[in-house]
Amino acid sequence: MRSKRNSGYIEFLKLVGLATTSSLLGVVILVTPQTKGTKSGAQKAAVKKAPAKATASGDLLKADLSPFVNKYCASCHGNTSQVAGLSLTKYKSLTEAKAAAEIWQRAASNVSNSHMPPKGMKMPTTAERQKFVDAVKRLVSEDCGVTSPGRVTLRRLNRAEYNNTIRDLIGVDYRPADDFPSDDVGYGFDNIGDVLSLSPLLMEKYLDAAEQIAVRAISTEKRVPIVIQGSNMTGKGAVQIDDDSADLASYGTATATFNVPRPGRYSISISGYQYKAGPDNAKVAVDVDGTPVSEFVIPETREKAGTFTLPFKFSKGTHTVGITFLNDFYDAKLPADRRDRNVTIKSVSLSLLDAAPLPESHLRLIPESPEPGKERTAAEKTLRDLATRAYRRPVSQDEVASLLKLYDLTAQAKEPYEKRIQVCLQAVLISPHFLFKVETDKPGAKGDRSLTDFELATRLSYFLWSSTPDNRLLQLASEKKLNNAATLKAEVLRMLQDPKAQGLADNFAEQWLQLRRLENFQPNPEQFPGVDQPMKHLMAEETKSFFMHVLNQNLPVTDFIDGKYTFLNARLAKHYGIANVTGDDLRLVNLAGTQRGGVLSQASILSITSNPTRTSPVKRGKWVLENILGTPPPPPPPNVGDLGDDGQILTSANLRERMEQHRKKPDCFSCHSRMDPIGFGMENYDAVGRWRTEDQNNKIDSSGVLPDGRKFAGPDQLKKILLQNKDQFTRTLADRLMTYATGRGMEPKDQCHLDEIVLTAKNTNYRFASMIIAITQSDPFRKRSANP
Amino acid sequence: MNHIDRKTFLRGVGTAMALPVLEKMFPITALASSLPAQAKPVRMAFLFVPNGVEINHWTPKAAGALSGELPQILQPLAELRNDFNVLTGLTQHHARANGDGPGDHARSTACWLTGVQAKKTAGSDIRNGVSADQVAAREIGRTTKFASLEIGCERGGVSGDCDSGYSCAYSSNVSWRSENTPVAKEVNPRLVFERLFGNGKAGEEKEAQTRRDLFRQSILDLVSEDASRLKGQLGTRDLRKLDEYFEGVREIEKRLQKFENSQAALIAAGVGKPNGIPADYGEHIRLMGDMMILAFQADLTRVCTFMFANDGSNRSYHQIGVSEGHHDVSHHGRDPKKLEKKRQIDQFHTEQLAYILRKMKETKDGDATLLDNTMLVYGGGISDGDRHNHDNLPILMAGRAGGRLKTGQHIVYPNETPMTNLFLSMLDKVGVRMDKLGDSTGKLQGLF
């Protein structure tokens, strides 16, 4: 995957129109919202200046919306009945109606899809429907020129972001946040500022994690030998311990005791000399913990001591090295200086032979140990660089000063240099400037402002990488270049080609498509043997690889629905009954000629929308309405039974008939007539995504009729229908992307921006990367409002 | 390093700070264990189960003493019948829609201990009330290492809308520290253990530990200053987040200054650290129960909330032969087969409860047992999982609150009695005087 990504880069640039060649020119034209949005900049300004078109606006409610509502909606959704808690007649003025733009949009979408009015009621003509939908569009878009970029609440890093940030900032391969409490989810994502809270428990975890990261990142391992002087050894037999040595006068053993700090291969080095006497040199035996390991002779004499070394593997803990004098010699007849052979041991030392090379994380912070006297200067530079990268912006002199204060205290506590940096690193890692993506306002600020280049770098990197900005982004930000639209676009393209863009699959795709539900999906093992944890993991990987492929190749987002390819390995291919796929690695497989294509036929989605024992057309239909069409059905009213696994409530033979019975209940009809047919269209895939033509000996009927009368048979035709309105799917995706990118839920005032993104997508053949670029160029992404 | 060094150290960082030297010399935990038995503290625990119960097999037939055959779901607790009460008629009015539409699972969870109507939002501007356990923790948690302990067996929502427009923060937390801040829970027994007793640094020398704590304190001082400087440049909602940050820092500081837990270390050593989350759900619940009991026993906290699962949980119960999801089963539509499966799930939960209560009863606490010195509420915020009604809630209360609580009764209150009245009474028994909690109308009669 990765190599292909790189080699495809140029191709990719061509596709998105950055590296245009004559042959490609015109194939795809990337249109930024600025140049070809709904309104030109000048027009926008004009709208801004124009006072609200009071008369015309008043007419919109009275002339267009109310008549339709009164004629077709009010009998259920009027002030008296308020079915599903909804009244469309309660709006007295256009301002009130605008404030409820979301409700009107839902209504328009239901009317446009023929979900409403329900069967059996008076039906509007197609022209009437269109007129109503257009009126709602005007209601919402009328104020597009004066719309606000919105404001995201101070966001802390979530678990995935924390892990990635530590990986990229510090360079330690360690996932501390896996032990953090779950991040709460809002608007479908776990990176929403308002929802991400910081409990004392989490604060504790931050502090612990900072400590452990510091220990892993910076080595304080003693690389200097551990030396035991002769004077600190113990003697047995004819051994005398002196002030500066251990003297072996006759048979006896001098022993050095070590506390070995970490296991590993050490070099034992013994320094000493002999008093020469007789024909031989002195000879000693070496033992470790009492077990003999070597013998050696000591030719050196007092004038120049010698050193004998031998390697030995120690475990952690207390060990002894003993030196035993083997060949004592004494001849009183010889002259005094050659009469008595003795041995003197000056010292025994251990030095680690296989000290691990310093980790990269260590060298990043401490490239070399500063010379004595220059530590503080080195620390200042280290801490300034560290804080700049950690806080994703230049740091003030005050900030450096307070870190240095901490440094000084650790220095006073006589901690070694490495430990001092460890402590300061901990402080940086629990600083609010690190834990939160800080965007500040000047006190009393009003109106909107563009993000600073650094704030923009942070938004970009957490959107596309779920991680901290790299050096290049920070460099561009410091040059104030990132806010330039062209630079921004080029950076987005660069970032999407980086392996870190996997963050989009891991965090955006997993949540948009609800892949994380696979974790809790427990199919009945008797019916579905072999769908174990690794298999579920493969299913998710298939969908994520597919997602990354659409992104990397800048393919149309409509491929999510009907792309005739996927990523399989041997095991997954066997699950699908697709031949000729070998090996453990997922690889691109052409699906032409199979019954599959797009995420709706992938085992991941088919499984998470099933019950443990059977498929659930309802859940599948609901999933499509929510995540593809963006028209989630309301939840069922309480106190209505659903289907038994074995059909106890309803008596018909097969699931489809039972559901059709169910749908006859008026309470159920309006939603189930939307959900069920879609689910039926996917019935050829069983509860774990395998193709089937029969279910419990009943032939599968995968035909369906949508509420508006459109008919289909089988998944392929269903997908064609879903793609008849490409903008609808694109808008759902734009909404999801924008929510994820900004960390806040989409509000009515965001609808104009979403419209622009959909338009850009349309003008670029729905190419995925172009859509992401449009998001990063939009006001909600690049600006913030001072007003909540 | 001794206290004097520490003072010097702190002054160096430029923070004037009163040092609780006395408290350090007389650790509260040690103090508690040396108190005479009658002064043993009363603990509070709240155990939550999701998706309602099969109420026909929960509610005892008659009011009064719990004699004769108990309803099926309560049968695992038969031998403990003199140690608990069943309370019928309690209601969480604010778990109801009251105009907010669907979302009973999230709403009733959020409301369970707060009695407040949670603001319906998928994310922006989360608002609920302060929960009873946290009200207690503010008072009786001041003297223990942890003001309160929050545990459970399921992490928060994984993706998607948690319940009909309610953020997952509502459906996965019963404990709320402030209107806007749920208290996250720990689901891994190993991590609970490490949090309570330290993570295996038993061999760490005292001096190293002291030094580490001092560095931590200085680090916290530094970042608090950072955070303070930020204050002026943030909006209201941002400030809420920053307040959470400050609260977290304060909690840790409190612990650094106050506590040494020689007694806790002894207790921990006798148990050993759990490995992680057991594959078997029953074992997971029991192990988390063990952690709660250990924390009480060592007096590391006196307040605990424990969610067996999040509301709306669709976990399947293979181990008892129920392969469908719990939530699917709870929408039984009066189908007898589903009702039976629901009963089995409910009974599985009370079996785990029986284990926990039995163990508390076996644990000596001064002259009495730990169960005697506890008030433990067990139940949920939905009565019938299919109807999603929030009156006649299934609530059981175990323990004697240090001898103050009459047990062995089925007490029937008029339906619609606010459940918060129960909490008000409980808080009163631990010395927390409150006029009102959520929708409470007064204290609950007949219990104490």
Could you explain how this protein is built, in words?
The complex is a heterodimer of chains A (788) and B (448). With 788 residues, chain A is α+β, with helices and mostly antiparallel strands. Chain A contains 31 helices and 20 strands. In chain A, strands 2, 3, 4, 5, 6, 7, 8, 9, 10 and 11 form a 10-stranded antiparallel sheet that branches. Chain A has a two-stranded antiparallel ribbon with strand order 1-12. Chain A folds into 4 domains: 54-142, no CATH class; 154-221 and 361-438, no CATH class; 226-352, Galactose-binding domain-like (Jelly Rolls); 514-726, no CATH class. By secondary structure, chain B is α/β, with parallel strands linked by helices. Chain B has 2 domains: 1-31 and 201-259, no CATH class; 35-198 and 273-429, Alkaline Phosphatase, subunit A, CATH 3.40.720. Chain B is 39% helix and 12% strand. Chain B has helices at residues 3-13, 21-25, 28-34, 104-112, 132-140, 168-171, 189-197, 206-231, 236-258, 262-271, 281-297, 326-330, 336-362, 419-429, and strands at 43-48, 64-65, 84-91, 149-152, 303-307, 316-317, 322-325, 364-365, 368-369, 374-379, 395-398, 409-418. In chain B, the strands form 3 sheets. An 8-stranded mixed sheet of chain B has the order 2-12-3-11-10-1-5-4, with helices on both faces. Chain B has a two-stranded antiparallel sheet with strand order 6-7. Chain B has a two-stranded antiparallel sheet with strand order 8-9. In chain B, strand 8 (364-365) and strand 9 (368-369) form a beta hairpin. In chain B, helix 1 packs parallel to helix 8 (206-231), helix 7 (189-197) packs parallel to helix 11 (281-297) and helix 8 packs antiparallel against helix 9. The radius of gyration of chain B is 22 Å and the shape is globular.
